[in-house]
Write a structure and sequence with these properties.
Distance between the termini: 29 Å
CATH topology of the largest domain: Nucleotidyltransferase, domain 5
Number of strands: 12
Radius of gyration: 21 Å
Shape: globular
Mean pLDDT: 94
Largest sheet: 5 strands, mixed
CATH class of the largest domain: Alpha Beta
């Protein structure tokens, strides 16, 4: 029997897990709740228990697996397999994730940042089409991303490469949680779209169902704003046009520097689909020079919630291929 991979996507609410083939096909998947009580001390032991339980359930053993890969929020040390600063997991101190999982399962382990891992998933089995130069943007509660250049995932000096959410798109714009102003995240995340809508509604004097909903104190979501825009609500159209402007500007700057073949857009906000993509493309064309514009496609992510577990499992393939290369070179 060919050996399997295990992929883990660690989130603030749930941990998604999957058993995959070497070629990245998901065979089994399940999830466990993320228990952040007691400073998150139960999270990793519960993952270990869940993996061991499922291996036993499927009449498998640790020897059936090449390894386990994980995507995690926070600052990830890939060499030591530790995570720091994952505040949504209530992790206040350094977490020795690799040590606990390897000793608990007996299976080799690799880890990277969750946005990087999602980028690897989309590159391997999704919209990235295995390209050597691709960029992934995820538009959710925040804006994250990952960059693959010349076939390698970029990490940077302190692991902050690919933090596309902090590209400045409005120098005097909204305050960002990172401490500076005008980050893409403040205007293109789900919360950013709503913030823009509320600001625009304050100044808007025309007919608009979106304005009525906001003025009425209704709970308006980013999806609502997009839905109103698709119905040609004048205020909503103006808001989404501005969101697309900011995304087109950011994608244009990324493409002018990196010249990727594909920029993949995922996350909840991307559920607006081609409606949003067409608008981003128009602005992207304005902000790129011809050689870049003609060689880069902007595409919607294809894997949805599976991007994380698929990308995580690919970390192990990469780790093992590097070990093989090292061993070949040492003979």
């Amino acid at each position: 029997m060919s050996k399997k991979l295990i992929g883990i996507d660690l989130g603030g609410t749930t941990v998604k897990l999957a058993i995959l083939t070497e070629t990245g096909e998901i065979q089994k998947k399940w999830s466990v709740l993320t228990d952040i009580s007691d400073e998150g001390s139960k999270i990793i032991p519960s993952i270990v228990n869940s993996i061991n339980e499922h291996i036993e359930r499927y009449n498998m053993s640790k020897d059936d697996f090449i390894g386990i890969g994980m995507g995690s929020p926070g600052t990830v040390n890939r060499v030591n397999g530790t995570v720091a600063g994952a505040y949504n997991l209530n992790w206040k101190s350094l977490q020795p994730v690799k040590t606990i999982i390897e000793s608990g399962t007996g299976i080799p382990f690799a880890i990277d940042n969750d946005a990087n891992v999602a980028a690897l998933g989309e590159r391997w089995k999704g919209a990235g089409e295995n390209g050597d130069n691709m960029v992934f943007l995820t538009l959710g509660t925040g804006v994250g991303g990952g960059i693959v250049a010349e076939g390698n995932l970029l990490h940077g000096t302190v692991g902050a490469a690919g933090e596309v959410g902090h590209i400045t798109v409005e120098p005097e714009g909204y305050q960002c949680t990172c401490g500076k102003k005008g980050c893409l995240e403040t205007v293109a995340s789900a919360t950013g779209v709503v913030r823009l809508a509320r600001d625009y509604a304050d100044k808007y004097a025309g007919e608009s169902k979106l304005k009525i909903a906001i003025d009425d104190g209704q709970l308006v979501t980013a999806k609502d704003v997009f839905d109103y825009a698709k119905q040609n609500d004048d205020l909503a159209v103006k808001v989404i046009d501005k969101v697309a402007f900011y995304l087109g500007l950011a994608c244009g700057n990324i493409a002018n520097i990196l010249n990727p073949s594909t920029i993949v857009i995922g996350g909840g906000v991307s559920n607006a689909g081609e409606f949003l993509l067409d608008k981003i493309q128009d602005y992207f064309n304005t902000f790129t020079f011809p050689a870049v514009q003609n060689s880069c496609k902007i595409r919607l992510a294809q894997l949805g919630n599976d991007a994380g577990v698929i990308g995580a499992s690919s970390l192990i393939k990469e780790l093992m291929s590097k070990k093989d290369d090292f061993q070949k070179g040492s003979h």
